[in-house]
Amino acid sequence: MRIPSRVALAALASLAAPLAGQNPPPPPPAPQPPSAPTPAPAAKRTVELTGFVLVNGFFTNARVNNSDVPQFADSLPPASAGGGTIRQSRLGVLVTDPDVLHGSFAGEVDVDFFGGQQPSTGGRTFPLLRLRRAVGTVSWSSLQVMFGQESPLVAERSPRSLASVGFPDFAGAGNLWLWLPQFRATLEQGYTLRLAEQVAVLAPSAGTAQGLFNTQPDSAERARRPFVEGRVRLGWGPTDDPSEVAIGGHLGWLASGDTLFQSRAVTADARVRIGVVEVLGEAFTGRALAGLGGGGIGQNLGPTGAVVRTKGGWGQLNVRPRQEVTLGGGCGIDDPDDRDLTDLAGNLRGRLKNFVCEGHVHLAPPGPLMFGFEFRRLETTYPSGKFTANHINVAAGYRF
Q: Sign of the C-alpha dihedral, residues 182, 232, 332, 163?
């Protein structure tokens, strides 16, 4: 019997439908593997420009060694003076690199315009650029190595001031500040209390003036030996705002003819922060210390060639009742031994004592502006008597 074609097609369709329903569904698409995390960008070297522009107006009622930033009163007849200067402005460049010799690196170059004046009618308004500090430091977990030009290891603190930046406050009155080329190493242990041992090798310096361009070896360089210093420091509190106390020792050599004599000192310094109060200070006793920034009021040898022994120091108290206001003051003294300043006839020569006190107010409103006022009293003793000077300084500037 012949089956009509349309009936056969309908039968095939009815059989195919249930068979199709028995086929498994297609597998779902394979899950894609999660994308790999994007690697964090490697830390890079950074370069930052810092500094400030500072204008100082000043008045001094007597003759001093340097009219705008005095260190001691002069024994010449009194002469009052007033004026203004911008040569204490500073420029700095900071460089950091987080991966140098398996440690981190920080470098700084610090210059100002306190290098003197052009011999012209412009005078102080044409100041010369001066290199103050230039340091590079490589730090590991407990070791730090520094090279460059910096304050002496045993006297690396200075008072806070907007009136005395070119020369730190109390220079020649207990502050051994002079920036010298050096290599320094610091080994620090501990966390809450941090004990550090430090050593430094410094370029020798007698503290004497050099010529305008060509230089000649001074008595320290003629000794052909570096200065060496050591210091032990105990710190506590935040690492970026620490309190510290330290003791140190300095040893150097100077030549006088065919004779070598020693420059040496024992020092102590501290910086303690308690709430809004900060106490800073240094003290020393030693001999032939003019090369560290005017120790012995700038005198290494007396009139008979005797090594000038001296002792001195400075202290400063600062209070910050509000974030933008700082009130403070301090004193410094350098007192050479009179026996070393006596000539063959028994007469005293030179500067016998220098005592300086200051009081200041600093204002730093929100933003870059800063203002300061400082009063300084200088008393310098000579064989002919005590000479005094009062110095008033008003400062205004901005940071960048």
A: positive
For β-strands 243-256 and 259-274, DSSP reports them as antiparallel
Those residues with Cβ within 8 angstroms of residue 287's Cβ, 6 or more apart along the chain or in another chain? 262, 263, 264, 265, 296, 307, 308, 309, 310
Residues paired with 360 in a beta bridge: 328, 374
Provide long-range contacts, Cβ within 8 A and 24+ apart, for 214-220: 218/291, 219/254, 219/255, 219/256, 219/300, 220/252, 220/253, 220/254, 220/255, 220/263, 220/291
Q: H or E element: which one contains 312?
A: strand 309-322
Say if residue 34 is exposed, middle or buried (CB neighbours under 10 Å; 0-12, 13-18, 19+).
exposed
Interval 130-143: pLDDT, tens: 999 999 999 999 99
Alpha helices per DSSP H over the chain: 5-22, 219-222, 295-298
138 DSSP assignment:
E
Alpha-helix residue ranges (DSSP H) falling in 284-383: 295-298
Task: Report helix, strand or coil for 302.
Answer: coil
**CB half-sphere exposure, 112, CA atoms < 13 A:** 20
Average pLDDT over residues 73-98: 95
| Chain centroid offset of residue 117 CA | 24
Query: Rounded distance, CA 64 to CA 72, Å?
Result: 6
For all residues of the chain together, what is the average pLDDT?
A: 91
Residue 6 has pLDDT above 60, yes or no: no
Distance, CA of 88 to CA of 162 (rounded, Å): 9
CA distance 196 to 112: 31
Per DSSP, helices labelled H in 169-214 are none
User: How distant, in Å, are the alpha carbons of 31, 38, 348 from that of 34?
Assistant: 9, 12, 88
Q: Report the C-alpha gap between 68 and 159 in whole angstroms.
A: 18
Share of the chain above pLDDT 70, in %: 90
Give the list of residues 6+ apart from residue 143 with CB closer than 8 angstroms, or none.
185, 186, 187, 188
Q: What is the largest CA-CA distance in the chain?
A: 160
Instruction: State percent of the chain over pLDDT 90.
Output: 82
